Amino acid sequence: MPDMLIPPITNDPSKVQLARISHVYFEHHDLDKFREFAKDFGFAEAEVAKDCIYFRGYGVDPYVYVATKSKDGKPRFLGPAFVAASEEEFQKASSIKGAKVMDLGSAPGGGKIVTFSRPDDTFFHVVYGQEERVMSKEEPSATHEQQGAFNKPFNKPRLGKFQRYHPGPALVHKLGHFGYVVPEFDQELEWYTSNFNFVPSDILYHWDFSNIDVLTFMHLDLGEEYSDHHCFFMQRAEPHVKKTFVHHTSYEVADFDTQLLGHDWLAKKGWESVWGVGRHVLGSQIFDYWRDSSGFKIEHYTDGDVVNTHIPTKRDVVGPFSVWGPEVPKDFGDKSLETTG
To answer: Which GO MF term does the entry hold, naming one (predicted)?
Structure first.
């Protein structure tokens, strides 16, 4: 087999510096049904327009998920949006070949967006100038009546106070990451990492061929500042997969109790569990994957790792994806939709 290795990737000032992942765009064949799912998943509605709903978390982003009604009945993922670190960085993104700049005046928070069309009807967006939300000083919850510190065997800081909860959805804080499964893996990885400050946190190679890298989890290099272990992952598609597809999108929730209460809530509402609850190896997140009303995989996570420029990229063989939890489904890596698009 020829070498298919990911080359060394580092950040430098010539690349567009992105500050964080912001939101994603999806089309759904039944917007009302997705709206029902979104409420049970823990999204809040930021704004409702004709055939379009902006969903937010309780973080700074004016919205984390844009759902529109598909005109031909086929659900689609229309790409992630990342926030440019400055006006200058947004202008750098605007000068990349193929960039299309538009105004976001009608969307919550306003701002501007530059969009790139990539192979197989995939898209990538950079935004700037959005008015951020003013967050509450207290973290909101739909499930926690009273929660204190965790009493451990040798240290019990929660003295005379009780943990009290009730059923409800796991409220979403922010969009954490997304991932593509890509036939043109090497070319697309080169485009993303040569133009933007994506740097691999971990690279995994094939269990039978150590010269074939098959998956990378990437973070935004913010220098000394820490960022999530990954906001973007890319997986090399198997030979029979001819078109790029989104594997899943993932949203942060507050803690382990929120995670489990949210799991029970979604199950009682009749939605389909994909995999979870469990603890990942790379990234360390406690995960819980579900299938939304259109069949897209969507994840709650909590307690993820953070890294900065001093944490080196690690390379290892593909191994177990969880420390504990249910066995990973055999079709977990597949594209699975009620209506394929």
So the answer is: methylmalonyl-CoA epimerase activity
Please report whether residue 279 resides in a domain.
yes
Alpha-carbon span 218 to 226, nearest angstrom: 13
Write down the residue that tokens 């064949």 correspond to: 29
Q: How far apart are CA 267 and CA 107, in angstroms?
A: 32
Share of the chain above pLDDT 90, in %: 94
296's tokens: 């897209």
Among residues 164, 151, 147, 167, the alpha carbon closest in space to that of 260 is found at: 167
What are the angstrom distances between the C-alpha of 289 and each of 9, 68, 77, 113, 295?
30, 22, 17, 30, 12
Which residues contact residue 303 at a Cβ distance below 8 angstroms, ignoring those fewer than 6 apart? 255, 256, 284, 285, 286
CATH number of the CATH domain containing 96: 3.10.180.10
Q: How many domains does the chain have?
A: 1
3-state secondary structure 213-236: EEEEEEEECCCCCCEECCCEEEEE
Strand-pair partners of 272:
291
- Structural domain boundaries enclosing 30: 18-131+170-324
**pLDDT tens-digit series, residues 286-317:** 999 999 999 999 999 999 999 999 999 999 99
Task: Look at residues 309, 315, 300 and name the one whose alpha carbon lies nearest to residue 263.
Answer: 300
